[in-house]
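Preliminary data (for renewal application), methionine sulfoxide complex.
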Amino acid sequence: MFDHKIDAADKGVMYRDLASALRGLVSGEPDPIANMANAAALIWETIPGLNWAGFYRNIGGELVLGPFQGRVACIRIKFGEGVCGTAAATQSVQRVDDVHAFPGHIACDSASNSELVVPIVRHGELIAVLDLDSPEHARFDAEDEAGCVAIGAILAEVL
Ligand code: SME
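Predicted structure:
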């Protein structure tokens, strides 16, 4: 059994422990789907207040649904569309306090109110995006962004 029970009381400690657990999980494993699947599960059981956590992969210039935890989601997203497509097209983090105010937001789950999308880039090329959704408004702050960027950097090496 793998038990990665991480204490979420202190956000800094939580992200440090999450990064360390993720490094252990993916080290030596070359399969990107396996690594994304375990990353999604680890994020889901560690970061509080989420209703969706997972990946969209860059398949030929389109985002295609990858491993995730949460409700069934839309499968294909064009670059430039919605929060994920904007992160993909600009290769920049999108931290959105109110998704309903985001132009073109794609409402996969009507319960989502805020979203954090981190592009995963290797040698200048977009590999995937990490997408976190929350039913809370403004759920994600700068510390969440930094913690998830660190997770993205770990994954960039193994996807
Ligand atoms: N809301 C996202 C779509 C993906 S789901 O949230 C899982 C967006 O606007 O890109």
